[in-house]
Amino acid sequence: MSSMQSDVELLPTDWRDQVRALAEQNDAVILAHNYQLPEVQDIAHHTGDSLGLSRVAADAEQSTIVFCGVHFMAETAKILSPDKTVLIPDERAGCSLADTMTADQLRAWKAEYTTDGVEPVVVSYVNTTAAVKAETDICCTSSNAIDVVASIPEDRTVLFGPDQFLGAHVQRELQRENMHIWLGECHVHAGINGSELKAQVEADPEAELFIHPECGCATTALYLAGAGVVPEERTKILSTSGMVRAAESTTARRVLVATETGMLHQLERVNSTTEFVPVNRAAVCKYMKMITPAKLLNSLRNGTDVVDVPHDIAERARASVERMIAIGSPSPDAD
After folding, report:
1. Which residue, among 59, 98, 110, 15, has the nearest Cα to 300 in the 3D structure?
2. Residue 212: what are its φ and ψ, rounded to 5°?
3. 40 to each of 33, 62, 86, 293, how far by Cα in Å?
4. Euclidean distance between CA atoms 327 and 147, whole angstroms
5. Which of 71, 160, 184, 258 is positioned for an S-S bond with 211, CB 3.0–4.6 A?
6. Is the peptide bond before 27 cis (omega within 30 degrees of 0)?
7. 312: exposed, middle or buried (C-beta count within 10 Å: 0-12, 13-18, 19+)?
8. What fold does the segment set 189-278 form as a domain?
9. Per CATH, is 98-185 categorized as 3.40.50.300?
């Protein structure tokens, strides 16, 4: 029996009703990332990717936001809504990618590329701490990273971090020469490698490919498409919200999905006729799965765990996050 199964079985049978009743009683909105456990996704008021949920958090009328995701996401919600109470059901839910860059490291990196008093433009993936966002000019997510970098004048040097695979994808798409990439990675996405993808494509050459740009296999996917191993039109580099939209319209019998396995739940919800198969079944983020139904219920009952961001850091970080939100057009309901 998995820990998640035992967690659900120990809950009262009406736990879902209790969660929604407590949310209404506490004037709370529940947000869940696409990588959360299916039970948590299903009970949330909004499920989506980082960009979509950031927008929901910014516009929410409720006084309390319960963020079912990892800590940097809850921090982002607090940055955008400083007067609201932000809770995360388990404050220990961190992010291996966010841990690859500190504010001190980013300041040193900026200094390295500052010439004649002109600083580079820093683009940080939203998977970063509030302190890093405070040193950032504009944040991005996988769904608007290309648009964000494209909005920066060509004569400006761009520092992109911390995800090297997303950065490489953006650089490849834009052919941007004066762009430097931090060598960070998400341990889960980096573990989805090219050899696994190639083996699955060879076993099922008719399948479509949905590839998250954070994945270590993204370059391999593009190589396979270029080499004609799989048709280019069936090889799609997509954000998680992009995967949902692509799943809604695909007529493929089978889709190979390269991202964290929690994504499959949303894909299957919008398309029950296509088989969605993970490229790597072990691609499970232990931090995302730390948010369980029991912890969500406890958070609503007891107001734990509260997320705070120091005022000075929040003020500086807010500008970079708001610039991110202003770029790109996917609606929250599509995420």
Report:
1. 15
2. -80, 135
3. 9, 19, 17, 6
4. 7
5. 258
6. no
7. exposed
8. Rossmann fold (3.40.50)
9. no
Cα separation of 263 and 256, whole Å? Answer: 12
Which residue, 30, 38, 34, 36, is CA-closest to 57?
Answer: 30
CA distance 109 to 103: 10
Instruction: Taking each helix axis as running N to C, give the angle between helix 293-302 and helix 15-25, from 0 to 180 degrees, rounded to the nearest 10.
Output: 30
Q: Give the model's pLDDT for residue 324.
A: 87
pLDDT tens string 170-208: 999 999 999 999 999 999 999 998 888 888 988 998 999
* Whole-angstrom distance, CA of residue 234 vs CA of residue 249: 13
List pLDDT tens digits, range 48-68.
987 788 789 889 999 999 999
How far lies 308's CA from each of 54, 79, 81, 185, 200, in Å?
16, 9, 11, 26, 44
Residue pair 197/221 in contact by the 8 Å Cβ criterion:
yes
pLDDT tier at 328 (50, 70, 90 boundaries)?
low
Q: Position 212: which residue type?
A: H
Domain edges within the chain = 3-95+287-309, 98-185, 189-278
Q: Is residue 109 predicted with pLDDT exceeding 90?
A: yes
DSSP assignments along 22-42, one per residue? HHHHTTEEEEEETTS-HHHHH
Q: Where are the beta strands (DSSP E) in the chain?
A: 28-33, 46-48, 64-68, 85-87, 121-125, 138-140, 158-161, 179-181, 208-211, 235-237, 254-258, 275-278
Contact between 110 and 119 under an 8 Å Cβ cutoff? The reply is yes
Query: Cis omega before residue 162 (within 30°)?
Result: yes
Averaged pLDDT, 33-39? 96
The overall longest dimension of the chain from CA atoms, in Å, is 65
What is the pLDDT averaged over residues 127-149? 94
Under CATH, what is the fold of the domain 3-95+287-309? Rossmann fold (3.40.50)
Give pTM, 2 decimals: 0.89
